[in-house]
């Protein structure tokens, strides 16, 4: 990505902030940002201070090696050929060498080049290099974000309304914005301004507040607006070019510094502003850190030492003694020096001298030592080789306590990370697509909302209506929960009260929201308002509901399985018990006639048992068919009849199927076959001895609903007498699972697995009619 | 007081035969008055009504798995007919379900839970109960 000319309208407030950091932490440099367009370098930003002195070229050259690979000190800025005239002009004003940094985003794309023109520092310490690194990172991040912001705005410009663009722009830039239309003499006032400027939620300024003589608001009631509008009126009046910007300080609850920028497009002026207070505070903190560093640095020049190479005569300043905890009476010797600093075997004076000669003219080593008092210290040993007036070679060096400096570096890193974390936190809360934030007064009136809430429940770009009812979009069933949560929050100020509320979205869909209510208090500890933070948990809730349905289904199926197993157990177990009992009777029997009778009964029991086992086997096979394709109804009915074919013939029963042929061609789940087998089994089992059995199966289909009726002329049952169902005689509810009417009980459960229902009517000595209804036929 | 009559209520004829034969084999006539048999639960309830009018006592051996009125239904109706629980019950069933055993605990008149078929051991338990009830 090549940086474009659009960078000329970069958000200067952020770079100004960086410039402030640079100028305060690196003494007094000049700060320049260049963009590169087709290899041509263009200056897009500069901070400017009067030059006071010129360092020598040799000093700059000597410091080159101290700098990291990302930051380059230019020994002579005139080597930047393309800008030679410009830099020559700077040098003529007394500005000399500079640091040059490449600004590269995460994708390794060039964002520009940053030059820090330093005209007064005589050296750049390691500490400063770390600071430079931090500045480079900060600048890169700000620039990168700025470019992304602008790209987003550009992409949206074509498809969004002007107001929407302003809305987006104000969201991106921070606190608020407005749009003045000179042609229609109207003002668009973005509602987040009220939050930023601590105004009532529904407060609106008018066009005349910024242009003309009359102002609509009471200047005594809203002093913060006096400074705000006065400065902006002046800016708007003097806006001769297409853009302007500045900083405005407002005395709100605390003193806040806002940066604003104005842009004119024909008759429309857009203004966006952002609260820069945090950044400014951080820069102050950095300055404080810098002053601490300076104080540390001042020791550098006093904790000094020298040693003659010829005879090893050594001298040191008092600061060396205090730094290394050496007694005042102790004479300076290399042995003590060596011992206190725990130098290695290859760090004698000669070794250091050789290192100075072969290296960059200096020796530097950092050691971590433990003093006699137990204190740990980081000491930077510095030495250079020189000659005295007698031509004797001697090492001149210094010791520097870098313990605090290291702590400061760590503190700085923490500070910087907190800066971004805090900014992101605040922005996340106010300008995000995740959290809802609303403030509600104690009497239930909505004070303000964040954009995400407004966009989700009030409407994008719509001002908060004065009569907005906070409960209006909450489902009625949750009103009580909401009110209880508010009562709890008011009763325990400062405590988070959780509540789950279902709300209607703008398109009237139900949104599940999880909220934390917290009452905020005044100086008298009295609740003044309730801060509500919420999050959309619809997806989670839907998954929960799905899970609950699945659990219910599994539970239901489990219950059915238990009942089903119990029924089968009874049907098998009773015959087994009889066989066992009959076998015992044979053992006890003495009369051959009895033995013959028992054998006959055993045969009968074995026959019943065999029938049951075959039936279970059949049902097991059918069970697998649930997952198979549906089969035609005539096949289902045919199979069910075939299952009882022998018995029907044996007892001479009549079996009718009444159905339209077209209906019988329709397909249905094979489970219906199992249901019919259970019902037909009952018909046969409870046939009347007074007449021959007639079974009628009627199948109809209306509006995709299938109805199957199985009717017989058996013994029937008195529903009232046996209280089978006292409330609705058509619906099976109280049938005992272990009664002999097992067929109907099983049929009922199987019907429910097909999301159908089973009803029956019965009359003693007349017969029984079972009705199956399925909502989803075929 | 007369000895108790044993009332067997079961729809399964084979089971009734086995129960009756085994009881008769492993007991003596002095331990109960007589064995009464009912294949229909309702008939059993009708007999209970008659006994309630007399001073004769019953020990009911009741099957659970029966048509129209299950053993549980029988017990519920018995509670209405005999609220003072004059006639105790032993469940005699082919069920091996723990759920049935647990459910039986809800009826104080149910003294025991016999798993079919009736055999010598169960008859001993029955006679012991009869002795205790005397």
Short description:
The complex is a heterodimer of chains A (778) and B (134). By secondary structure, chain A is of the alpha+beta class. Chain A is built from 21 helices and 27 strands.
Describe the structure.
The complex is a heterodimer of chains A (about 775) and B (about 130). Chain A is α+β, with helices and mostly antiparallel strands and about 775 residues long. In chain A, the strands form six sheets. A five-stranded antiparallel β-sheet of chain A has the order 2-1-5-4-3. Chain A has a five-stranded antiparallel β-sheet with strand order 7-6-10-9-8, sandwiched between helices. In chain A, strands 12-11-15-14-13 form a five-stranded antiparallel β-sheet, sandwiched between helices. The two termini of chain A are about 60 Å apart. Mean pLDDT of chain A is about 75; it is low at about 1-10, about 50-55, about 295-300, about 420-425 and about 720-740. Chain B has about 130 residues and is α/β, with parallel strands linked by helices. In chain B, about 45% of the residues lie in helices and about 20% in strands. Chain B is built from five helices and five strands, in the order βαβαβαβαβα. In chain B, strands 2-1-3-4-5 form a five-stranded parallel β-sheet, with helices on both faces. Chain B is globular. Chains A and B meet through α15 and α16 of A and α1 and α3 of B.
Order of helices and strands of chain B: EHEHEHEHEH
- The oligomeric state is heterodimer
Radius of gyration of chain B: 14 Å
DSSP strand tally of chain B: 5
For the largest beta-sheet of chain B, the strand count, sense and barrel status come to: 5 strands, parallel
* Mean pLDDT across all amino acids of chain B: 90
Q: What is the rounded distance between the termini of chain B?
A: 9 Å
Indicate the low-confidence ranges of chain A by residue numbers. Answer: 1-9, 50-54, 295-301, 419-426, 722-741
Order of strands in the sheet with the most strands of chain A? 2-1-5-4-3
Q: How many individual helices of chain B?
A: 5
């Amino acid at each position: 990505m090549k940086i474009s000319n659009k960078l000329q309208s970069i958000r200067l407030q952020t770079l100004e902030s960086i410039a402030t950091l640079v100028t305060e932490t690196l003494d007094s440099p000049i700060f320049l940002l260049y963009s590169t367009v087709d290899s041509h370098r263009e200056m897009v930003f500069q901070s400017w201070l009067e030059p006071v002195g010129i360092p020598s070229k040799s000093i700059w050259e000597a410091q080159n090696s101290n700098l990291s690979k990302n930051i380059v000190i230019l020994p002579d800025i005139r080597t930047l050929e393309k800008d030679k005239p410009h830099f020559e002009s700077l040098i003529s004003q007394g500005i000399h060498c500079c640091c040059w940094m490449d600004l590269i985003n995460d994708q390794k794309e060039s964002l520009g080049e940053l030059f820090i023109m330093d005209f007064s520092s005589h050296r750049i310490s390691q500490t400063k290099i770390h600071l430079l690194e931090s500045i480079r990172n900060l600048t890169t991040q700000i620039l990168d974000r700025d470019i992304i912001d602008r790209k987003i705005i550009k992409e949206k410009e074509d498809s969004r309304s002007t107001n929407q663009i302003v809305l987006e722009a104000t969201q991106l830039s921070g606190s608020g914005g407005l749009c003045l239309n000179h042609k229609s003499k109207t003002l668009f006032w973005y509602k987040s301004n009220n939050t930023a400027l601590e105004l009532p939620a529904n407060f609106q300024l008018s066009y005349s507040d910024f242009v003309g003589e009359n102002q609509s608001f009471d200047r005594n009631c809203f002093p913060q607006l006096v400074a705000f509008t006065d400065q902006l009126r002046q800016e708007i009046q003097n806006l001769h070019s297409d853009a302007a910007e500045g900083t405005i300080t407002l005395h709100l609850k605390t003193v806040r510094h806002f940066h604003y920028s104005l842009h004119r497009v024909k008759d429309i002026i857009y203004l966006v502003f952002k609260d820069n207070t945090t950044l400014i505070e951080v820069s102050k903190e950095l300055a404080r850190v810098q002053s601490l560093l300076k104080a540390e640095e001042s020791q550098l020049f006093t904790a000094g030492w020298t040693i003659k190479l010829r005879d090893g005569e050594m001298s040191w300043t008092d600061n060396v003694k205090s730094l290394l905890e050496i007694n005042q009476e102790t004479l300076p010797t290399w042995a003590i020096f060596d011992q206190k600093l725990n130098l290695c075997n290859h760090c004698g004076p000669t070794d250091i001298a050789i290192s100075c000669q072969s290296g960059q003219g200096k020796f530097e080593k950092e050691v971590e030592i433990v003093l006699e008092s137990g204190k740990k210290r980081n000491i930077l040993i510095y030495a250079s080789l020189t000659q005295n007036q007698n031509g004797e070679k001697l090492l001149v060096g210094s010791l520097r306590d870098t313990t605090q400096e290291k702590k400061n570096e760590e503190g700085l890193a923490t500070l910087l990370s907190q800066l971004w974390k805090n900014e992101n936190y605040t922005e996340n809360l106010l300008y995000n697509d995740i959290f809802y934030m609303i403030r509600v007064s104690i009497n239930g009136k909505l004070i303000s909302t964040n954009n995400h809430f407004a966009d989700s429940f009030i409407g994008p770009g719509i001002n908060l209506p004065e009569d907005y009812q906070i409960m209006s979009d909450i489902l009625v069933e949750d009103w009580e929960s909401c009110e209880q949560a508010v009562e709890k929050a008011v009763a325990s100020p400062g405590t988070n009260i959780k509540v789950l509320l279902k709300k209607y979205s703008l398109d009237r869909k139900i949104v599940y929201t999880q909220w934390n209510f917290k009452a905020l208090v005044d100086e008298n500890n009295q609740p003044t308002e309730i801060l509500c933070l919420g999050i959309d948990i619809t997806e989670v809730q839907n998954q929960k509901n799905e899970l609950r349905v699945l659990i219910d289904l599994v539970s239901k199926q489990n219950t059915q399985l238990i009942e089903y197993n119990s029924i089968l157990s009874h049907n098998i177990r009773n015959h087994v018990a009889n066989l066992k009992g009959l076998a015992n009777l044979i053992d006890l029997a003495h009369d051959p006639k009895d033995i013959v009778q028992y054998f006959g009964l055993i045969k009968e029991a074995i026959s019943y048992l065999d029938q049951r086992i075959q039936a279970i086997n059949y049902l097991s096979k059918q069970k697998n068919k649930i997952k198979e394709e549906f089969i035609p109804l005539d096949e289902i009915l045919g199979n069910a009849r075939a299952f009882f074919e022998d018995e029907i013939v044996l007892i001479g029963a009549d079996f009718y199927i009444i159905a339209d042929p077209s209906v019988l061609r329709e397909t249905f789940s094979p489970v219906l076959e199992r249901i019919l087998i259970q019902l037909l089994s009952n018909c046969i089992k409870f046939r009347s001895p007074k007449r021959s059995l007639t079974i009628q199966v009627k199948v109809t289909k209306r509006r995709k609903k299938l109805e199957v009726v199985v009717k017989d002329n058996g013994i029937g049952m008195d529903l009232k007498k046996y209280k089978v169902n006292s409330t609705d005689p058509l619906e099976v509810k109280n049938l005992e699972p272990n009664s002999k009417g097992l067929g109907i009980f099983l049929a009922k459960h199987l019907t429910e697995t097909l999301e159908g229902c089973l009803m029956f009517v019965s009359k003693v000595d007349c017969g029984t009619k079972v009705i199956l209804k399925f909502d989803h036929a075929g | 007081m007369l000895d108790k009559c044993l009332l067997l209520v079961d729809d399964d004829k084979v089971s009734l035969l086995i129960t009756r034969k085994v009881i008769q084999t492993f007991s003596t006539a002095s331990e109960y008055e007589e064995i009464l048999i009912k294949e229909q639960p309702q008939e059993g309830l009708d007999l209970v009504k008659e006994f309630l009018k007399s001073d004769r006592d019953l020990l009911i051996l009741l099957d659970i798995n029966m048509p129209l009125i299950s053993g549980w239904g029988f017990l519920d109706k018995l509670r209405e007919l005999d609220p003072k629980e004059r006639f105790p019950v032993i469940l005699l069933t082919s069920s091996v379900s723990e759920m049935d055993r647990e459910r039986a605990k809800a009826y104080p008149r149910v003294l025991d839970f016999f798993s079919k078929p009736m055999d010598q051991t169960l008859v001993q338990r029955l006679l012991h109960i009869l002795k205790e009830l005397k």
